[in-house]
Structure formats: C-alpha cells, structure tokens
Structure prediction request, 407 residues.
Amino acid sequence: MSHDHSHDQHDDQHDHHHDLWPDGFWEQPRRLGQGLEGHGATDDYNEGRPPGLLFANRKAEGGFAGIQTFGKLPVALTPDDLRAAGVDVAVLGVPWDSTATGRTGTNHGPLAIRACDYKGGYGRPHFSLDTHVDAFEELVMADYGDAPVFVGNTAKTFEEVRKFIGTVVDAGAVPIVLGGDHAITWPSATAVADHYGHGKVGIVHFDAHADTGSDMPGSLASHGTPMRHLIDSGAVPGKNFVQVGLRGYWPDQQTLDWMDDQRMRTHFMAEIVREGFDKVLERAVDEALDQADHLYISLDIDVCDPAYAPGTGTPEPGGITSNDILRAVRRLAAEVGIVAMDVVEVSPPYDDRGEITALLANRAVREAMTGIAMHRKGITEPDYLHPYAIGLDADGNRRNQVFRTSD
Ligand SMILES: [Mn+2]
Prediction:
C-alpha cells in the first residue's frame, strides 16, 4: 500500500507534537500597546476618566471589611493608570488552575490571598517590626486586578497573561503575581524577560518540585513544566536558575541530568537539613547576585511543609517553615533587588479553616514589598534586622533589663 498524502500529514503531526503552539508564539517579544485589542488591560469600562489610582476603600474599613484589594491598596486598571501614578509595585492575580496535575482550586488563590488579611486600611501604618521599614509609606503600590483567563484554552490564556504582565513591566512597575497554578510562571517570566532581555533575568525558585518536566502527555503546559520551557525558549537560561527546597520522589535521574547539563543551581531539602536553612540561603543569595542582572522570585507555596501550607496542589511533607520562607523572600528583595515575583499554588479549597496557606502567601508578598522598600532605601547589608527588633537600644545595649534586686 502506497503512502498517501494524509498519512504523511498524520505522521508529521505525531512526530512534532511539541509544535502545539502557533509559529512564533513564544519567540516574538511584545510591547505595550501591541496586540491588546479586546484585552483586559484596555477594555472600555474605564474610558473617559483621568488615569491614576482609584481608592476603592474608606480609611476606616479594616482588613475584614470593605472591598478586598491586596492590603486595601488603591486600584489601577490600565497601563496608563500605572504610569500616571508612578506605581512601583503592582499586585495582580492570575486565577488559573487548569494546568494542575493534582488538587485543583488555585484559581481561587488570588482572591483568598487578598481576603485573608486582617491588617487594616490604606493610609494606616504598615510598619515591619523586623526592619522598621514601611513599604506602604516608601513605595507607590496598587492592586492591578486579575489577568484575563479563558477556561479550557491554555494557549490563549497564557498568551494573554504574557501580554498582561508585559504591560505592567513596560509601565515601570514590579509585578507581584498571585497564582494560580505554577504553569503561569511560563508566560509570566517570559513577559518579564521580554522586557529586560532574554537571558538577562534570573529566577530564584522556591519549591518542593523542580518543575523541569519536558511535558505532560499531550501537552507542554502543566505546573510541572514551566522551568523547562523558560530554559528551552532561552527566556531564562538554566544557569540563571537557583532552586531551593526540592524533595520527595520527583523528578527522575534523567531529568536531574538534564538540569545539571543546563547548569541549574539546585539546593535540595537534604542540604538544608544537613547544614541549616540559613547557610543554604546565604549560598542562594550569593548565587542570585552572581547569576543575572534582574531577579525574579518564583515562590511555590509547597516549598513549605504542609503543616504550614496545607492548601496546595501537590503537598510534599518535610519542607521548610513559614519563618524560613518569609526571611528568604525579604533578604533576596533587599540584598539582591527584584524585578518581579510570583506566589503560586495556593488552593483555598484544600486550605485549613484558618486560611493559613493564604495568609502565608499574603505575608510573603508583604515581605517582598518590605525588601523592595529596603533596597530602594539602600538597606542591603546581609540579613539586616533593626536593632530594636533584636532587643537592643539606640546605644546597642540590651533593651530589656532584669529589675530583680539581689538579696
Ligand atoms: Mn512548582
């Protein structure tokens, strides 16, 4: 039987199943204003008003009340709003969970991370007791709402997420992205690399999992593959990765060999247990300073032990503590400086009733904000803590005295 034309086409399709995306889908850098027709950042809801920040809450409305923007921050809805207000940091959500392989529900993450906060209104002190830095005072920050998602259409969603986050970096703001499952780091970090240059961005990636799988059967996109695609596309080369917290039973040796070939820098949980978190964090900070011009933090909340972060897609027992991750995020933002961050894999349906996973993510964002403010103020010394926070007075003496008189 002769090979007919349709048969050849079938074979071709089979051999090239990786060519799922349209030509140039990931290669073509996009800039603000290009291809934004019908896009969420330029809809017609907000035509005919002057650009700038919208205050969506009254000052007296506490964290549990009012309209749930992140930290009761004012709202920005367009790139013009970001530019007009000179926004330094824009918090935004990507409510997408359709590329999770385990437990779903991370599409509810962004709203839960915003809503779990008890800390009150914008315009009140938001002072960090560890550092005595108030990011809300030092920085212009806004809640940028959520990226558009198209249920059932991963390719279109990821392209829109890439554009949406591209508008934020192009407008001069640091995007802090609330996931969403971890697959969104693929379009998110690609957007940041589009702006700063492919190969110019480094990622410190906190995770129980390497996320370097080549594919899920039938699809490139899953929350186990984003780092592989960022490396394959050249947006973020392997040598620009520092990974912290890897443990459990995945990936396999073949994937670890591939990661070594890419010169990824990996810190497994075993190294943390053997030598202590702080020693590994020092190495991660050194490597981040060494590695790239612009740092992106990708925080999968499952890097923390399920005791601290039960509400997540693929929990892996034996992880780091809440305190470890909060300090790590702040140190990287302060000492290295960051251009973007994502906090992903918070799944509210699997969280406990105290919303501890969402609250941990919320505080990780706040620590990033504090670190960004410290970096802008020039507080970049290693592991800075305000003397008062560690029990010292202005002269460096112990602040807390024992008044008991001896017999
Ligand atoms: Mn992950």
About this structure: The mean pLDDT is 89.
